[in-house]
UniProtKB/TrEMBL annotation:
<keyword id="KW-0325">Glycoprotein</keyword>
<protein>
    <submittedName>
        <fullName>Glycoside hydrolase family 3 protein</fullName>
    </submittedName>
</protein>
<dbReference type="InterPro" id="IPR036962">
    <property type="entry name" value="Glyco_hydro_3_N_sf"/>
</dbReference>
<dbReference type="InterPro" id="IPR017853">
    <property type="entry name" value="GH"/>
</dbReference>
<dbReference type="GO" id="GO:0005975">
    <property type="term" value="P:carbohydrate metabolic process"/>
</dbReference>
<dbReference type="GO" id="GO:0004553">
    <property type="term" value="F:hydrolase activity, hydrolyzing O-glycosyl compounds"/>
</dbReference>
<dbReference type="InterPro" id="IPR016181">
    <property type="entry name" value="Acyl_CoA_acyltransferase"/>
</dbReference>
<dbReference type="Pfam" id="PF00933">
    <property type="entry name" value="Glyco_hydro_3"/>
</dbReference>
<feature type="domain" description="Glycoside hydrolase family 3 N-terminal">
    <location>
        <begin position="29"/>
        <end position="312"/>
    </location>
</feature>
<dbReference type="GO" id="GO:0009254">
    <property type="term" value="P:peptidoglycan turnover"/>
</dbReference>
<comment type="similarity">
    <text>Belongs to the glycosyl hydrolase 3 family.</text>
</comment>
<dbReference type="InterPro" id="IPR036881">
    <property type="entry name" value="Glyco_hydro_3_C_sf"/>
</dbReference>
<keyword id="KW-0378">Hydrolase</keyword>
<keyword id="KW-0326">Glycosidase</keyword>
<dbReference type="InterPro" id="IPR050226">
    <property type="entry name" value="NagZ_Beta-hexosaminidase"/>
</dbReference>
<dbReference type="InterPro" id="IPR001764">
    <property type="entry name" value="Glyco_hydro_3_N"/>
</dbReference>
């Protein structure tokens, strides 16, 4: 179970294996001391492994650990996505995890993987990345990798989704999900599925919401085996630790009770039960668990299954040496300066100016010194992660309207509502200091525009209105529209009345309302965010943030016709930039394509006398950063597009189209080109268009003019555990009865029959792949399959771990450092014995891999019609691709060019 140590008396009788979750805590050094004491008690009591110490540290407005001297503030998940860099999100996550790990925390309850399907009206708000499932996946996986690389365990939340909750249709005092499982699968479940597939997600937080749809009727997701065991484990394949929503939720306690709720949660498949507050409630839960076993509602096997999952997670994120010796302030002091710089960059990059139609920014240029500036701010709940909260008065301010169910849900773990004036007071002072002039500042409430507001509006020439979730706090929307109307009327009478609206929480307040001419989003209202806002308002830097998700994409569509300058790739100038681009792509890619981690700039440089190559880049000549890269090859009448990459943060602005256009232009200039091909096996980064086409690549290439009908599927496969592999029963006997024999050759001296065989039955680049392998006599060889009359039936390349081929075929390398053997490009003509020949070649390859002490064997470039035969031998599919071949005239853009006999410059102008 996960308990709050601040609610538990610290004693030495540590018989129960209790884990802990930190809630808003003391200073960093106090937290480190507390955690160390808890781990010491557990160690002395004989616990086999250290305690799990977990906390929410999402950044933005949700931080359980705050110490302004040692712990840095970073933007919310949506703010990080607004910065447009998954690489930045990774760095922020790693910095966050490094800090909390320093005080002894080993499990972060994050990342948030919810998709805001109904973004404007959901209480989760900026805690989520946005409303695009793929973007949520990209940033969620980046954050997860950052946590893991800092040595902290990860927990995705809130399964199955808090992104589209209905607060009106439930008879209970809880929100419900009304989407069907099919609808959830297409959107809300995508980030969870992708995160699980990486293998880096240690735990999953299962929410307490209800589900009501035709196939499922659940009161609390975390108490339902339909959600935990069936959906999460069986359908999504999650094998990690399932953690329940807090069972101290008022509605759950009143309806079910903690004892029964604990049993239901474990019975449903949860491994850890979350209880956050009272010690007596924690004891109640433990007694309930014991009763569940005594009443035979829970078996000991069920308990041991959860125990093994928890122990496995502990072994990945902690040890007694680490738990008993947290570095604490010593480490935090060393890293604080660099983390502060990262924090400032992250906030500066996140600030988003949606519109500035009247060119009011910066204010020091649109306002005269003697003109007055008015700041209007709402009364809001202070952020618990804010140091300013300490100075806010404890007095309560009652709103005229009762809090909504939205507010009860989102703030159910927060304290009393306090005045928001203190939160924005320092912001007002900063504005005044930046102007070197007086500032008018007052709050507004659900009472609307009062005489005091009217008087101040008449005095000021520029008004800044701050909103915080105006779509749910409708008085803010009404107040802002009223002031906007007043400013419009005063302007029509000749007065200067400039209006800026700043959304400090949800960016959707006025995102689509064009009547608000200047609209800025900060994504949270911590001091760091407000400081970045001041710098924007007074021109210290030009904000580059953009709204995440569909709003960003819809804005980029308007730019889709712009042309980027494409340059030839230069190894000395662009090599490091390409390595950086590949690493950014690896973090942003689907789990099946994490082999990009072992891809580098040299992978694409064959330097072969038989294969020509021209590569292109789109780059920032000022920073040397690469925004895109395209690799092209040509050999024996075939022009090949081998790879095309675009920085994940620069997509949908025509970089890919600019590279594609230049690549095709370069290929068709070669007079001997008779065929164009998408995908290449040497170098074998992408054998074609990935079949797992979440990014819509097929549609993209179709839009670029390719005829996708003439395709063939190619597969990369693997045997993950070579040590335990054995040939299928009867395979050797069938091979012997067929009279098939095998031998292994090295070098080109006796390879004439092999090369003739490959030249007859494979593409030209495969021929060069074989020649390259045969020349590497120490690391590579070719296995031949021969008939009883010594005719050649098939061939395959074998390479040992670390061979030169590994550089050109990234799927042969391992980011985990294990030895990987290669079985490359089996060439087996279609005959009645083809499947048996292929199995025999694969078996010989596996034997060679095992002889080379490989831990894993990868079989690359298998035609689709053959791969099912290999599945029966224990191979698993790693990646699948569609190789596309077109005659030049069948690529519509080039065909048009050829028919019209346009010059290349005319063609470029048209497209």
């Amino acid at each position: 179970m996960l308990f709050n140590p601040l609610a538990r008396r610290t004693t030495s009788r540590g018989a129960d294996d209790i884990n802990y979750m930190l809630t808003p805590s003391p200073a960093a050094h106090q937290t480190a001391k507390l955690v160390q004491e808890l781990q010491t008690i557990a160690h002395q009591a004989g616990h086999p492994q250290p305690l799990l110490i977990a906390l929410d540290q999402e950044n933005g407005g949700v931080n359980s650990l705050f110490d302004e001297d040692y712990i840095c503030q970073f933007p919310s998940s949506m703010g990080q996505a607004a910065a447009g860099s998954a690489e930045l999100a990774y760095k922020v996550a790693k910095a966050t995890a490094t800090e909390v790990s320093a005080v002894g925390v080993n499990l972060i309850l994050g990342p948030v993987l919810d998709v805001l399907t109904n973004a404007r009206y959901q209480p989760l708000g900026v805690r989520a990345t946005g409303d695009d499932p793929q973007e949520v996946s990209q940033y969620g996986i980046a954050a997860m990798n950052g946590y893991k690389d800092a040595g902290v365990a990860t927990c995705g939340k809130h399964f199955p989704s808090y992104g589209n909750l209905d607060f009106l249709g439930s008879s209970l005092d809880i929100p419900i999900i009304t989407q069907t499982l099919e609808e959830l699968s297409l959107s809300a479940l995508v980030p969870f599925r992708n995160a699980i597939a990486t293998g880096n997600l240690d735990a999953m937080f299962v929410g307490g919401c209800g589900i009501a749809n035709p196939s499922m009727n659940v009161n609390h997701a975390c108490l339902s085996d339909q959600v935990v065991d069936e959906l999460l484990r069986n359908e999504l394949g999650f094998t990690g630790v399932a953690i329940s929503e807090c069972l101290e939720m008022e509605v759950l306690r009143n309806e079910i009770g903690v004892k029964t709720g604990t049993v239901m949660a474990v019975e449903a498949g949860c491994d850890l039960v979350l209880l956050c507050r009272a010690y007596d409630v924690q004891l109640e839960a433990i007694s309930g668990l014991k009763l569940g076993v005594e009443n035979e509602l829970l078996t000991k096997d069920r308990i041991y299954t959860s125990l093994q999952r928890v122990l496995r997670m502990k072994s990945s994120c902690t040890s007694w040496h680490k738990a008993l010796n947290p570095p604490g302030i010593t480490l935090l002091s060393k890293i604080h300066s660099s983390h502060l710089s990262l924090s400032m960059k992250a906030y500066d990059d996140s600030i988003t100016v949606m519109r500035d139609n009247e060119k009011l920014l910066p204010l020091n240029e649109s306002m005269h010194q003697e003109e007055e500036l008015l700041l209007l701010t709402p009364l809001v709940k202070p952020l618990p992660a804010s140091s300013m909260t300490k100075n806010i008065l404890e007095s309560k301010h009652k709103s005229e309207s009762a809090p909504s169910l939205h507010d009860k849900w989102v703030h159910r773990d927060r304290g009393a509502v306090m005045s928001g004036e203190g939160v924005f007071r320092e912001f007002g002072r900063s504005l005044a200091r930046a102007r070197l002039a007086k500032l008018l500042h007052t709050s507004y409430t659900a009472n609307g525009v009062r005489p005091v507001h009217e008087n101040l509006i008449h005095r000021a020439s520029t008004i800044i209105i701050v909103t915080a979730d105006a779509n749910r706090n409708l008085y803010q929307a009404g107040f802002t529209k009223h002031v906007a109307m007043m400013c419009s009327m005063l302007r029509s009478s000749g007065q200067k009345k400039s209006l800026l609206v700043v959304a400090v929480s949800s960016p959707y307040d006025f995102a689509m309302d064009k009547s608000i001419g200047t609209y800025i989003c900060t994504f949270d209202f911590t001091e760091t965010a407000m400081a970045a806002l001041v710098r924007v308002l007074f021109g210290d830097f030009t904000p580059q943030g953009s709204l995440p998700g569909t709003l960003r994409k819809s804005k980029k569509v308007l730019k889709s016709r712009q042309h980027w300058l494409v340059e030839p790739y230069n190894r000395d100038r662009d090599g490091k930039g390409l390595d950086d681009l590949l690493q950014a792509l690896a973090r942003a890619s689907a789990p099946n394509y994490r082999f990009l981690q072992t891809t580098n700039a040299s992978t694409f440089e064959l330097s072969s006398p038989n294969i020509g190559e021209n590569h292109f880049v789109v780059r920032n000549s000022s920073t040397q950063a690469l925004y895109g890269f395209c690799a092209t090859y040509y050999t024996k009448g075939t022009g090949i597009l081998g790879a095309i990459f675009v920085d994940p943060t620069k997509r949908n602005v025509s970089i890919g189209r600019s590279l594609h256009r230049r690549a095709l232009r370069g290929l068709i200039q070669k007079q001997e080109i008779k065929k164009l091909q998408l995908g290449i096996c040497f170098p074998g980064v992408f054998l074609g268009i990935p079949v797992d086409d979440n990014a819509g690549l097929k549609s993209w290439f179709a839009g670029c003019g390719w005829d996708l009908q003439s395709s063939r599927r190619l597969v990369n496969m693997a045997i993950v555990e070579l040590s335990s592999w054995g040939p299928p029963e009867g395979l050797l006997q069938r091979i012997q009865r067929a009279g098939i024999s095998f031998d292994l050759i090295h070098g080109l001296d006796n390879a004439e029959s092999v090369l003739n065989h490959v030249a007859t039955h494979a593409n030209p680049e495969v021929f060069d792949l074989y020649k390259f392998a045969l020349q590497e006599t120490k690391a590579c060889g070719v296995v031949r399959a021969k008939s009883p009359v010594d005719s050649l039936l098939g061939t395959v390349i074998i390479c040992s771990p670390g061979s030169p081929l590994h550089n050109f075929i990234p799927s042969l390398s391992s980011s985990r450092g294990e030895l990987v053997g290669g079985i490359i490009a089996p060439i087996v003509p279609s005959t009645t014995q083809a499947n048996l020949v292929l199995q025999g070649l694969a078996m010989m390859g596996v034997r060679q891999n095992k002889a080379h002490k490989s831990a894993r064997g990868v079989l690359s470039w298998v035609p689709n019609e053959s791969y099912e035969t290999l599945l029966t031998m224990g191979f698993e599919v790693l990646q699948a691709f569609e190789e596309i071949s077109n005659a030049p005239e069948n690529v519509s853009i080039i065909g048009y060019f050829l028919k019209q006999k346009l010059t290349f410059f005319q063609w470029t102008d048209l497209h």
